[in-house]
């Protein structure tokens, strides 16, 4: 009973915390913003550090939930961008989550084992592939009505060439750096803690961008298939990624990932600071994308493809863009997750678990960022935290019972409240800027001298 | 939208036609196909017997997929819903027959009438009863699912129904996995009749238990033959039902235009229920046969076959019965050839790769007709 109330208080506190965070972020004064964000960060940090009796206010179990909630919110926000805002039903989010997790984990794993080549190869590869994709995109947009398959082939060739170049260049540079690591007895400059933190941040970003690039290659042909088929194909993507994860040591050349046994020995670098920082990054990017003209174009594709086409919106481009950004978030979330327990197993990225972000965004409301964030935290603390423990006390069936209850919740949500719990309500920071006459005048003045004439 | 198009504005004013570059994509596909062909031909020349063996196991798999795919294609043709729970109905078929056999000894019930009946009659009558029972229970299950979960959402956005379907599917799988229901373990399946295997080498011989067939022989089993015969029979009778009977006519009318069908006096709800029941009965049949062929069952049994059968139905052209059949056979071959010659774990991946390629080349599937967009 005590546990029940404790969890309940924690859930309320977390939701209130999210509300407060979004409120301070939405404040117009920069000072309040910065102080507020630091304060919101500090509150949780203090709760993790301060001990009452034997245990901290947030014990390790709760902290774990918190980190997982942060990653889950990132993944779910990405999915909400793809499905909630752009209307492309995707079941592939966990595939990109997994790609991000394994990529980031591999980079830091190799780093802690005195191998810089992982970071260098991945870094150069990501940059080169990105450059190739952007360049080709520029070049190919000259051709009107280019068949998607031809475009895909060209991109694929470009990416493979870039990847091979990155591999050879990166391996050479990486090997040259090996002496800087020193030995375990006399650690070199690259083995220091600060270097590891830096590598971790780079690894998470690289993992996110890598996931985004994979999403680009996958989405380019597959997004043209239409909603249902896209859903199935992206589910297939998750299954394929999972199959590859189980066979990382046999099909893929990564013996350190140990295939189905799971990858161990990943440095546990994720602290509350990093989880919070990346969560903040994702929220800010997401909010700014949604409230820009790009975001409005993305949403118009969801509302009516024909009408938005008539307005001059390149539908295929915006579908791809939102898919790529959504996968970027998933990849970043994966990178953060991988460094929290220091263990990755393919079972974590099973396609059946992959429905979790879908449940979260449906629960929180499709096309509502606040809903996703709150539902993500709520889901983690209520279903994963509270229910799991309570059910665990009842019997050995606990994990199964969870999966019996999720679909029932999903069904009831779909039947009774298809708009989600919070509907379209947005809190503080995430609310669109109100258009007042003064604000319009400001915007017009700041525009480059072009005064649109109203006819 | 000016900002959004700023990238396009900076482009050169003259645009060239991209259609001229279509050969790149086509060339890519041709190279892929050639590579696959080379692998197949080389392996065929190296060891034709092994190749034939793999093709036989692919046929067995493909005909089971065909049974599931028929249900998918009918349901999708009428309500435009990927019935995710269809794979779980397939699983339910296997479990019903398992309980019928182990708990109730239904496969030997003719002995109750007359113990002196010839064993072959007992086996045949008993097995057919078990299968019919499974089909009936599956049909009932599917109609219940349709009434409870899908019907209230018939006018909601299609994706809402899809999410509901995923929810139903999960619910069945994990409710079944509870310890007091079926338990999450793999359960060894007790067959209603024994599987007998023959090998072909200088004539057809029986494989004796515990003795490997000699080298250079092709083996096949009675269940493979039963699966093929039953699957073809079902396909033909379904084709007859849809093409020649009143119900079939009503089904086609509903698939073509639901509202117009309603105006013509067709009870659309009833037709949809019948479609679900028919598809589920076929899936239940497939489930029993699948469990007999691969005798180890668990509640997640239906997930992958279900998905692959759906892919097969899409590949053949969703809504088309011969299409689903051909698609399923291709899927079975692709899977067993991949498992045999490329790598076993990638057998699940190949289905989705083929789906993407087929849909890119022919968005309506192999047998699908271009249709008007329906809301």
Structural overview:
The complex is a heterodimer of chains A (455) and B (375). Chain A is mainly α and 455 residues long. Chain A is 71% helix and 2% strand. The longest helix of chain A is centred in the middle third of the chain and has 30 residues, at 148-177. The radius of gyration of chain A is 23 Å and the shape is globular. The model of chain A has no long low-confidence stretch (mean pLDDT 86). In chain B, the strands form 2 sheets. Chain B has a 3-stranded antiparallel β-sheet with strand order 4-3-5. Chain B has a two-stranded antiparallel sheet with strand order 2-6. Chain B has 375 residues and is mainly alpha-helical. Chain B contains 14 helices and 6 strands. Helix content of chain B is 67%, strand content 5%. Chain B has helices at residues 6-9, 22-46, 48-79, 86-102, 110-113, 119-150, 158-176, 222-244, 246-256, 258-263, 268-293, 303-316, 321-342, 347-361; strands at residues 16-17, 187-188, 197-200, 204-206, 218-221, 296-297.
Outline type of chain B: globular
The neighbouring-strand order within the major sheet of chain B is: 4-3-5
Number of strands of chain B: 6
**Structural class of the helix and strand makeup of chain B?**
mainly alpha
Q: Which structural class do you get from the secondary structure elements of chain A?
A: mainly alpha
Could you give a short description of this structure?
The complex is a heterodimer of chains A (455) and B (375). With 455 residues, chain A is mainly alpha-helical.
Characteristics:
heterodimer, A: 455 residues, 5 strands, B: 375 residues, mainly alpha, ABC transporter involved in vitamin B12 uptake, BtuC, 3-stranded antiparallel β-sheet, 14 helices, disordered N terminus
């Amino acid at each position: 009973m005590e546990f029940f109330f404790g969890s309940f208080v924690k859930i309320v506190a977390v939701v209130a915390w999210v509300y407060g965070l979004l409120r301070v972020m939405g404040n117009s004064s920069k000072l309040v913003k910065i102080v507020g964000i630091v304060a919101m960060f500090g509150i949780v940090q203090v709760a993790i550090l301060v001990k009452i009796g034997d245990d901290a206010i947030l014990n390790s179990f709760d902290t774990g939930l918190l980190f997982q909630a942060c990653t889950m919110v990132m993944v779910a926000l990405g999915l909400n961008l793809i499905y909630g805002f752009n209307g492309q039903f995707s079941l592939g989010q966990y595939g990109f989550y997994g790609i991000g997790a394994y990529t980031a984990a591999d980079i830091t794993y190799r780093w802690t084992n005195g191998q810089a080549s992982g970071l260098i190869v991945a870094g150069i590869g990501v940059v080169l592939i990105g450059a190739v994709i952007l360049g080709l995109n520029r070049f190919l947009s000259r051709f009107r009505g280019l068949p998607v398959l031809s475009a895909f082939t060209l991109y694929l060739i470009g990416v493979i060439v870039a990847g091979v170049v990155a591999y050879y260049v990166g391996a050479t540079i990486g090997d040259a750096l090996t002496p800087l690591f020193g030995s375990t007895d006399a650690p070199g400059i690259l083995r220091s803690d600060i270097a590891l933190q830096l590598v971790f941040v780079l690894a998470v970003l690289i993992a996110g961008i890598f996931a985004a690039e994979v999403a680009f290659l996958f989405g380019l042909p597959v997004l043209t298939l239409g909603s249902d088929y896209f859903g199935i194909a992206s589910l297939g993507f998750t299954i394929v990624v999972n199959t590859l994860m189980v066979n990382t040591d046999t099909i893929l050349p990564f013996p350190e990932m140990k295939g189905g046994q799971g990858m161990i020995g990943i440095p546990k670098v994720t602290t509350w600071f990093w989880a919070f920082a990346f969560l903040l990054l994702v929220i800010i990017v997401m909010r700014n994308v949604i409230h820009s003209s790009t975001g409005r174009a993305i949403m118009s594709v969801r509302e009516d493809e024909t009408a938005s086409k008539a307005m001059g919106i390149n539908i295929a481009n915006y579908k791809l863009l939102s898919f790529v950004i959504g996968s970027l978030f998933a990849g970043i979330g994966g990178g953060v997750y991988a460094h929290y327990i220091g263990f990755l197993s393919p079972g974590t990225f099973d396609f059946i678990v992959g429905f979790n972000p879908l449940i979260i965004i449906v629960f929180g409301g499709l096309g509502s960022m606040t809903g996703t964030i709150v539902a993500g935290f709520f889901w983690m603390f209520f279903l994963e935290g509270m229910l799991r423990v309570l059910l665990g006390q009842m019997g050995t069936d606990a994990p199964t019972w969870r999966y019996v209850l999720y679909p029932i919740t999903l069904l009831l949500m779909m039947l009774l409240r298809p708009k989600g719990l919070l509907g379209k309500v947005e809190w503080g920071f995430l609310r669109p800027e109100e258009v007042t006459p003064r604000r319009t005048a400001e915007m017009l003045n700041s525009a480059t001298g072009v005064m649109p004439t109203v006819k | 939208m000016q900002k959004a198009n700023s990238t396009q504005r900076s482009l050169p004013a003259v645009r060239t036609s991209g259609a001229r570059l279509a050969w790149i994509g086509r060339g890519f596909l041709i190279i892929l196909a050639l590579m696959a062909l080379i692998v197949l031909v080389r392996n065929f020349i190296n060891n034709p017997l092994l190749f034939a063996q793999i093709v036989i196991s692919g046929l067995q798999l493909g005909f089971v997929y065909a049974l599931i795919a028929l249900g998918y294609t009918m349901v999708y043709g009428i309500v435009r819903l990927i019935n995710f729970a269809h794979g779980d109905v397939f699983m339910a078929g296997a479990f019903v027959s398992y309980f019928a056999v182990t708990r109730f000894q239904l496969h030997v019930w003719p002995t109750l009438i007359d113990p002196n009946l010839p064993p072959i009659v007992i086996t045949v009558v008993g097995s057919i009863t078990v299968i019919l029972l499974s089909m009936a229970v599956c049909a009932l299950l599917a109609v219940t699912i349709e009434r409870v979960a899908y019907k209230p959402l018939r006018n909601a956005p299609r994706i809402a129904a899809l999410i509901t379907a995923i929810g139903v599917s999960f619910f069945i799988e994990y409710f079944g996995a509870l310890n007091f229901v079926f338990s999450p373990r793999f359960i060894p399946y007790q067959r209603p009749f024994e599987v007998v295997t023959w090998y072909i080498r200088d004539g057809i011989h029986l494989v004796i238990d515990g003795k490997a067939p000699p080298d250079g022989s092709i083996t096949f089993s009675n269940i493979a033959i039963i699966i093929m015969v039953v699957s073809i029979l079902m396909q033909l009778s379904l084709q007859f039902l849809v093409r020649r009977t009143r119900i079939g006519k009503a089904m086609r009318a509903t698939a073509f235009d639901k509202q117009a069908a309603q105006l013509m006096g067709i009870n659309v709800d009833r037709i949809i229920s019948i479609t679900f029941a028919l598809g589920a009965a076929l899936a239940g049949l497939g489930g029993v046969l699948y469990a007999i062929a691969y005798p180890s069952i668990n509640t997640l049994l239906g997930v992958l076959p279900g998905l692959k059968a759906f892919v097969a139905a899409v590949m053949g052209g969703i809504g088309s019965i011969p299409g689903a059949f051909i698609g399923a056979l291709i899927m079975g071959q692709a899977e067993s050839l991949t498992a045999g010659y490329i790598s076993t774990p990638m057998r699940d991946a190949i289905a989705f790769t083929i789906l993407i390629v087929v849909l890119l080349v022919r968005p309506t599937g192999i047998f699908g007709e271009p249709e008007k967009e329906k809301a």
